[in-house]
Structures are given as C-alpha cells and as structure tokens.
Specification:
Blueprint: H1 2-19, H2 25-38, H3 45-50, H4 60-80
Helix pairs in contact: 1-2, 1-4
C-alpha cells in the first residue's frame, strides 16, 4: 500500500504541473484502473515494471518504478508548481 501511495502521489504531482490541480488525479486513476483490468496473471520482469500497482509483496521492479515516479513527480512539482488555472468565464 505504501508503494502504491508513493507512486500515485508522484504521478499526481507530475500531472498537476501539466494539467493543473483540478485534473491532476485523472492520470493516476486511469493508469491504476487500466493496469488492474489488464493485468490478471501478469508474469515476468516486464510485468513487474508496467503492472507495479497490482504486484504483491516486495517486488524490486515495482518498488523501483513507484519510487522513480515519486521522485520525478515531486521534483517536477517542486520546480514548476501546479499549472495555473485559467479564467472561469
């Protein structure tokens, strides 16, 4: 659960930079949902990497992807901040 929370937090932070704060949750939700639906019976090293949210236990590849997403998203958000919202008119 900690791995998935870290990975999704990084993805959401990166999406806030690109899409803005209001839409920032959509990419992480879409990715996790798609992986959950597409990954029954995933096996092998490649599956551990692309299906990191649904991996059981302490898979090193899944942890690496989640931590990389967290680090990249956090750094991008720290440097750029959330995209400003446009006028609501």
């Amino acid at each position: 659960m900690i791995r998935n929370a870290l990975g999704c937090t990084g993805a959401t932070a990166a999406a806030a930079v690109v899409l803005g704060a209001r839409l920032s949750r959509l990419p992480a939700f879409g990715c996790v949902t798609a992986v959950y639906l597409a990954s029954p019976g995933v096996r092998g090293r490649a599956g551990t990497v692309w299906a990191w949210p649904v991996q059981a236990g302490a898979q090193p590849g899944a942890w690496a992807v989640a931590l990389a997403a967290f680090a990249a998203g956090s750094a991008l958000y720290a440097v750029r901040g959330a995209r400003p919202e446009g006028p609501r008119g």
